[in-house]
Amino acid sequence: MNTVLLLILSNCFMTFAWYGHLKYGHAWPLWKAIIVSWAIALFEYCLAVPANRFGYREFSGFQLKIIQEVITIAVFIGFATTFLKEKLAWNYLVAFVFLAVAAFFAFAFKATGPAA
Asked: Which string of b and e fits 55-65 if b means at least 16 CB within 10 Å?
């Protein structure tokens, strides 16, 4: 569970790093948006690297990536609707459901162990 919590927190930072400047940074020169984004992303890396290292004890690399993608979409939906004030359309929800189905298949069946 620590892995999932760390991934959620890291995604919050990364979402702001990648998309936060879209609301307030239009007047910024591109170099400033990049520097600010990298500064925010540093915190994301400080959370994501341990999350994946700890998580690899319990999950496969494939499972970690799928967890990451589902969390990324969930965090972005919250960010886009609250911070960017974008409308959540039905087709975005359908896409999220398909990702959830993919996550189900990744965890529902026993996969072979990692390669030696």
From this structure: beeebbeebbe
Question: How crowded is residue 44: how many other Cβ atoms within 10 Å of its Cβ?
Answer: 19
Cα distance between residue 59 and residue 49, in whole Å: 14
Tokens representing 43 are 């915190």
The DSSP symbol for 59 reads: S
Question: Distance between CA atoms of 4 and 55, rounded to whole angstroms?
Answer: 8
CB 58 within 8 A of CB 2: no
Task: Output the tens digit of pLDDT for each of the chain's 116 residues.
Answer: 699 999 999 999 999 999 988 888 788 899 999 999 999 999 999 999 999 999 999 998 988 998 998 899 999 999 999 999 999 999 999 988 998 898 888 888 876 655 54
Residue tagged 């004890």 (tokens):
57
Report the chain's C-alpha Rg in angstroms: 16
Q: Are the CB atoms for 37 and 17 separated by under 8 Å?
A: yes
